Amino acid sequence: MKRTQTLNSSMAAELEKTFANNNYHGTTEAGLPFHTETGSIPILVSAPHATKHKRNDSIKEQDNYTGAIALLLHQFTDCHLIYATKLGKEDPNYTKGGGLYKKKVVDMINSFNIKYLIDLHGASEKRPFSIDMGTCYGKTMKDDTLCIIKNALVSSSMQGVKQNHHFPAANPNTVTHYANARTGVESVQLEINKVYRDPIRKEDLFLRCVNGLRQMIVNLST
Fold it and tell me: In this structure, are residues 108 and 34 in contact, taking their beta carbons and an 8 Å threshold?
């Protein structure tokens, strides 16, 4: 692992500030609307909705704290990482024909011999699950691999982990589906309930989530 320090809510809140800048429009710096970090294990974590994004000329809301969670996972496990940094011209999980973000995901998979892609998203607190694991009904990830993921999450006391319940990543333009179709890499879209993405008001649930995801990566990399 890259770090052994104890995880706490203030770390997440500090990391989230980068994405929350300008009302979640993100950075005002020129350049691509996403950033990448290299790691030492063959796992790529993605957070394409860390900031607001465009879909059919409409601005869509961000998935709060998915960016911060992705950064924490990189810090604690040294996984490879890609995440949105500002409002761009595309929705990486919707744009047809690839788009800049998904093409970079494929490039990283090929360049670093990635074995697993973990694409993080946020679901409403009204959803009846803690995390919904989308694999296009088993097409983008093996059952044995998904079992490793679920066991790590459940071991972290996350209740109601479901599979392809409401967000199966069946659309070929999702990051998960696109990357798997073009590289064959095992991929999963993790939709995290909002109550597990609130380190300020729901610190215990947030820590359960991040620790479960961290253990998931450790188990997949061994």
Answer: no
